[in-house]
UniProtKB/TrEMBL annotation:
NCBIfam families: PRK07106.1
Highest taxon in the source lineage: Bacteria
GO biological process, one term: 'de novo' IMP biosynthetic process
Protein name: Phosphoribosylaminoimidazolecarboxamide formyltransferase
E.C. numbers: 2.1.2.3
Pfam families: AICARFT_IMPCHas
GO cellular component: cytosol
């Protein structure tokens, strides 16, 4: 297939639209279901690059959940704890395959943002992963292949119109990439930077030791940032992104946004949230929304509006600010990556509130000494990578 005509571009008024290879060669994909659109393909191709690099860096199956050309979540296929299985709403599915665990983690980190996502998988989609995808609201999936039963399950979604893309895992893009803006062509070399656990050797803080597990988490953070719209910051714990702040004009706003998402991920594991009793028939998305309100500052307003009567079997106790802070203080060993240098120590102060212990960032700020001092204050370990990872 030399080219694929699309319904429209980013918006319905942007026609005509197509994808094709400038050199006239065949596209490295097959559409096995649905009719993917312009934004679907942007998410699919960025997501595929991300999971491919995660697989190379860690040796583990990887998955990502993309929305509007940035990941809402990314993870490798480590087993799920009972608590994670419960907060990701997969505890009824039994033991999952490593690839399904990767997607459950990627989807579960920020379920509200992942609603209606485009999925990328590093490995052939197996039946476990397809079962999980089938019951969630998403736009489509890209993978290097599909088991027959998995493909049959996915083709049942959206009355047979679910977007299913198979990509040639051996495809290697050209060394130069092009982009047009306002009729003007931009050209640059592809960002072929290789990131793995050996990428973090230049430790600049008093504390020097980065355990192998933390190096893997830092690699996940930096690879995720490589495909996240800049400015961006990523918090990672236990093999998965738990908070991604994308596309902010200020570095501290990235750190705060990603930190709040990481906090929400941890608060979902608190006894107060795990003890919520939902009414029969309340869907997963409605439960996610209710939990987000419950752990947020709006909960008193929700109580006043009587929302709890529609959602919960019994009125939940208020989750006080003091109780939330006490629970958040138990979150530790978090890794954090930044796609460009931290200009001020306020980013470190905010990261500390979300249990960050390991940091990777390019360095190169005129205030590096202040940032290092802030890390030393909290006995954090910080590595300078010397490499910026802007993505636009």
């Amino acid at each position: 297939m030399k080219e694929l005509e699309l319904k429209y571009g980013c918006n319905p008024n942007q026609k005509p639209s197509r994808i094709y290879m400038q050199d006239g060669s065949d596209l490295p994909i097959q559409v096995l279901g649905g009719r993917p659109g312009y934004i679907n393909f942007l998410d699919a191709f960025n997501g595929w690059q991300l999971v491919s690099e995660l697989k190379k860096a860690t040796g583990l199956p990887a998955a990502t959940s993309f929305k509007h050309v940035s990941p809402a979540g990314a993870a490798v296929g480590l087993p799920l704890t009972d608590t994670l299985a419960k907060i990701y709403w997969v505890d009824d599915l039994g033991e999952l395959s490593p690839l399904a665990c990767a997607y459950a983690r990627a989807r579960g980190a920020d379920r509200m943002s992942s609603f209606g996502d485009f999925i990328a998988l590093s490995d052939i989609c197996d039946t476990d992963t397809a079962r999980l995808i089938k019951r969630e609201v998403s736009d489509g999936v890209i993978a290097p292949g599909y088991e027959p039963e998995a493909l049959a399950l996915l083709k049942q979604k959206k009355k047979g119109n679910y977007n299913i893309i198979q990509i040639d895992a051996d495809y290697v893009p050209a060394a130069l990439e092009h982009k047009e803006v306002f009729g003007i062509t931009f050209e640059q070399g592809r960002n072929e930077l290789h990131i793995d656990k050996d990428f973090f050797s230049d430790v600049v803080t008093e504390k020097k030791e980065i355990p192998d597990a933390a190096k893997i988490d830092l690699a996940i953070a930096m690879i995720t940032l490589k495909y996240t719209q800049s400015n961006s910051v990523c918090y990672v714990k236990g093999g998965q992104a738990i908070g991604i702040g994308a596309g902010q004009q200020s570095r501290i706003h990235c750190t705060r946004l990603a930190g709040q998402k990481a906090d929400n991920w941890w608060l979902r594991q608190s006894p107060q949230v795990l003890g919520l009793k939902f009414k029969e028939g309340i869907g997963r998305a409605d439960r996610d929304n209710a939990i987000d309100l419950y752990i947020g500052e709006e909960y008193m307003d929700v109580l006043a509006d009587g929302v709890w009567e529609k959602t919960f079997e019994e009125k939940p106790e208020i989750f006080t600010r003091e109780e939330k802070r006490a629970w958040l203080d138990k979150m530790t060993e978090v890794a954090l990556g930044s796609d460009a240098f931290f200009p001020f120590g306020d980013n470190i102060e905010r990261a500390h509130k979300s249990g960050v212990k390991y940091i990777a960032q390019p360095g190169g700020s005129v205030r590096d000494d202040h940032v290092i001092a802030a890390c030393n204050k909290y006995q954090m370990v910080m590595a300078f990578t010397g490499i910026r990872l802007f993505h636009h």
